[in-house]
Amino acid sequence: MKVVLKMEKRNPILVFVFSIITFGIYCIWWLWKTKHEMVDKGADIPTTWLIIIPFVNIWWMWKYSQGVEKVTSGKCTDVIAFILLLLLGPIGIAVLQNYYNEIA
Question: In Å, what is the CA distance from 3 to each residue of 35, 61, 81?
Fold first, then answer.
């Protein structure tokens, strides 16, 4: 039997600041950590290692975005999550963290 865990609450401002200070390394860790939290809640997201492969990372972000929609029960659609990740980077993950905090 698998235990369903809650999404961890994190300060969206600190998520943004740490992403900038670490030149994106925190972004990768954050994606890995939240991916595992979403998989525990039933999302189907492949391994985070795919984020480092050019062009495949775009597909991975789409799969991650679909997981966001499932976990947030449609509060954040997959299209919005994908645009946030692809175009806004650290700002986008801070916004997504805000959605995760609502369901935590």
Answer: 16, 25, 26
Q: Quote the tokens at residue 76.
A: 């954040």
Q: In this structure, is the dihedral angle defined by the CA atoms of residues 60, 46, 43 and 93, taken in order, positive or negative?
A: negative
pTM, 2 dp: 0.90
CB 76, CB 96: distance < 8 Å? yes
Could you give phi then psi for residue 60, rounded to 5 degrees?
Answer: -60, -40
Report the distance separating Cα 40 and Cα 49, nearest Å.
18
Question: Which residues have a Cβ under 8 Å from the Cβ of 26 and sit 6 or more positions away?
Answer: 15, 18, 19
> Domain limits of the chain?
24-103
Q: What is the pLDDT of residues 70-86, one digit of tens each?
A: 999 999 999 999 999 99
